[in-house]
Write a structure and sequence with these properties.
Helices cover 72% and strands 0% of the residues. The chain is an all-alpha fold and 213 residues long. It is built from ten helices and no strands. It folds into two domains: 60 residues, Orthogonal Bundle (Arc Repressor Mutant, subunit A), CATH 1.10.10.60; 140 residues, Orthogonal Bundle (Tetracycline Repressor, domain 2), CATH 1.10.357.10.
């Protein structure tokens, strides 16, 4: 990586970080491009250079998250492998791995400011999550339950599973505050992972499926 490329990536990263912080604090209308650039310590024209405008920058925050998630998943997941061609045991093992790694990702790559933005976006009727990793996770759940990927049970089971991953982070008043902490320690992460695994096993038991099917 040459010096100019590295400098460009650093500038882009600083803008995204500053934009995430200000959009979370002031909302889309309240945060100005000038204010974002000042916080990121970059020239005003950099917004147009990277994104084109304020709305595109805002969209770019979530797009950047998805890109990082996809890149992160490459070390443990083949998104081109069809779960329908896998055994139930393979799918269960893969589901546990995906959930385990999602905990790692969510607790190291998603800031509190980004969580605020994601929660706000969830309330918009036109907001649709386009995450290949989460879509693949749902397809694995569908294979385990022997149901269609768009089946109501599959959608909710996957959602409930994800809630086991992210709820301690989303609800710090019920996790960090009682512990007197400002962040999650290794022991906390271990407990969260164990809880997610227990939930996966509960799905299997409820669905009447065995790991060796």
């Amino acid at each position: 990586m040459n010096t100019d490329t590295k400098k460009d990536e650093n500038s882009k990263s600083r803008i995204l970080e500053a934009a995430t912080k200000l959009f979370a604090q002031k909302g889309f209308d309240g945060a100005s491009i000038r204010e974002i650039c000042k916080l990121a310590d970059v020239n005003l024209c950099m917004i147009s250079y990277y994104w084109g405008g304020k709305q595109e920058l805002y969209n770019g925050i979530i797009e950047d998250l998805i890109e990082k998630q996809i890149e992160y998943s490459k070390s443990f997941l083949d998104l081109n492998r069809n779960p329908q061609n896998m055994s139930t045991k393979e799918c269960v093992d893969l589901l546990i791995t995906i959930s385990d790694r999602l905990v790692n990702f969510f607790y190291t790559n998603v800031s509190s400011d980004l969580i605020v933005i994601l929660l706000k976006e969830q309330q918009k009727l036109d907001f649709i999550v386009k995450s290949p990793v989460l879509d693949y996770m749902r397809s694995v759940v569908a294979r385990i339950l022997n149901k269609d990927v768009n089946d109501r049970l599959v959608i909710f089971k996957t959602l409930f599973m994800l809630s086991q991953v992210n709820s301690p982070r989303i609800l710090p008043a019920f996790s960090l505050r009682p512990l007197g902490q400002t962040d999650f320690c290794e022991e906390d992460i271990k407990i969260i992972k164990e809880n997610v695994k227990l939930y996966i096993n509960a799905i299997l038991k409820e669905g009447g499926r065995g790991k060796n099917d």
